[in-house]
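BUG: 3D viewer hangs when loading the predicted structure for this chain

Environment: internal workstation, default settings.
Expected: structure renders.
Actual: progress bar stalls at 90%.

Input used:
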Amino acid sequence: MARYTEAVCRVCRRAGEKLGLKGSRCLTPKCAMERRNRPPGKQHMTRQRRLSDRGVQLREKQKARYTYGILERQFKRTFTEAEKQTGVTKDNLLVALERRLDNIVYRLGFADSRRQARQLVRHGLITVNGKRVDIPSYLVDEGDTIGWTQSSTRSEYYKQLAQTIKSKVVASWLSLDKDNLVGQVLSLPTPDQIDVKFDGKSIVEYYSR
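Structure tokens produced before the viewer hung:
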């Protein structure tokens, strides 16, 4: 499947804030936002163009897409499904995005970024309730257990993770057995439990026009 393959730091610079697309690197002085805190291609411009309401909505939608690493078609499909559910659409959308398996792997601390988490899933290293799942968009449910395949526990990555996982903190709606590297979804998240850097209301307004 096609993916955004250009420098992801340009996405953060275009958004004007850190989206955490490169994991721990975003917390170091090497982060592009620390070195070049300006939109890409704007080196010689001193005045930025004011965004229209539609432009603001588009920017928020793009921030959400890049944060979770989803193509437009898949993101629109997720939004359409959230719109059909009862409740507030923007909250339904956020919960649906958080339920993605690659996001859960990232939230559990098994990967430093969602991009890395997606690779772990696609390479067949992750299990859900003991069964191997290699679909990053797979939606987990309350009570699901996320672990590792038997063969992956012998990899160098797994051994290094076992040493570094001790210092990581997981979301309140997840639990993590740090000794066995097994996580569980205690409950589906509520919007106030999810820390995101985009405005869900603007996304709803974008697709409503």
